[in-house]
């Protein structure tokens, strides 16, 4: 099973600042099949990024993904108040189980 | 518009059973691999099960193997999760999830609103 470790656990930033979220895998993620999801309080998760760097439909371009192998990053270039959420990375490369990171909470200063 | 609407959750005693349903619309259901993902209260996301487009291939997390059964009815555009021998640790919101296809691989692109399963005496 591929273990994903996200850091930091919590990120406190001001609107307009840049947010950098990290996801590290216990083994290389084949084909960079790594996704990022946003979950706002009381809502279902929403796909932001797939294939490590492809933005999903309707996602603002302030969200970007990068990385390969075992190290991946989600960047929010200019934080908006509506970006307050928990962000999860997920690998879907290996045979099941497909695993999620523990989440990074982004809150506003 | 893609829609996934779960139902069937509720309060059940340990050892009991529930059947979750997910009615879908807005896409060709029979062409998509589908998943169930759960989230215990205040916790993270955990993959539970998947089924391929025609129902011939199924996979389960170790924690539910032998107790849960995933199935689908392509004529009714509906996904199911039969849950038997329920335990307190199965308490969670259960999400029905569609899987995308194409370049970038099978990420989970649409999620239902979830249905809450509570296992308690």
Overview of the molecule:
The complex is a heterodimer of chains A (109) and B (121). By secondary structure, chain A is an all-beta fold. In chain A, 0% of the residues lie in helices and 50% in strands. Chain A contains no helices and eleven strands. Chain A has strands spanning 4-7, 10-13, 19-25, 34-39, 46-50, 54-55, 63-68, 71-76, 85-91, 99-100, 104-108. In chain A, strands 2, 4, 5, 6, 9, 10 and 11 form a seven-stranded mixed beta sheet that branches. A four-stranded antiparallel beta sheet of chain A has the order 1-3-8-7, with no helix packed on it. In chain A, strand 9 and strand 10 form a beta hairpin. The model of chain A has no long low-confidence stretch (mean pLDDT 96). By secondary structure, chain B is mostly beta strands. The mean pLDDT of chain B is 97. Chain B has strands at residues 3-7, 10-12, 18-25, 34-39, 45-51, 58-60, 68-73, 78-83, 92-99, 108-111, 115-119. In chain B, the strands form two sheets. In chain B, strands 2, 4, 5, 6, 9, 10 and 11 form a seven-stranded mixed beta sheet that branches. In chain B, strands 1-3-8-7 form a four-stranded antiparallel beta sheet, with no helix packed on it.
């Amino acid at each position: 099973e591929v273990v994903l470790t996200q850091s930091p656990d919590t990120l406190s930033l001001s609107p307009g600042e840049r947010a950098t979220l990290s996801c590290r895998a216990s083994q290389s993620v084949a084909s960079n099949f790594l996704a990022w999801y946003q979950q706002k309080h009381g809502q279902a998760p929403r796909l932001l990024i797939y294939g490590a760097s492809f933005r999903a439909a309707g996602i603002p371009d302030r969200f970007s993904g990068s990385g390969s192998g075992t190290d991946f990053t989600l960047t929010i270039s200019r934080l908006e108040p509506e970006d307050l959420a928990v962000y999860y990375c997920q690998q879907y490369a290996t045979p099941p189980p497909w695993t999620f990171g523990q989440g990074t909470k982004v809150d506003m200063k | 518009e893609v829609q996934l609407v779960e139902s069937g959750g509720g309060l059940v005693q340990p050892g009991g059973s529930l059947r979750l349903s997910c009615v879908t619309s807005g896409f060709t259901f029979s062409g998509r691999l589908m998943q169930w993902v759960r989230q215990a209260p205040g916790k993270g996301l955990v993959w539970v099960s998947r089924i391929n487009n025609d129902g011939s291939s199924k996979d389960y997390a170790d924690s539910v193997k032998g107790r849960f059964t995933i199935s689908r009815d392509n004529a009714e555009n509906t996904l199911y999760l039969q849950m038997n021998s329920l335990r307190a640790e199965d308490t969670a919101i259960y999400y029905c999830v569609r899987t995308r296809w194409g370049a970038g691989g099978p990420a989970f692109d649409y999620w239902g609103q979830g249905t809450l399963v509570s296992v308690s005496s």
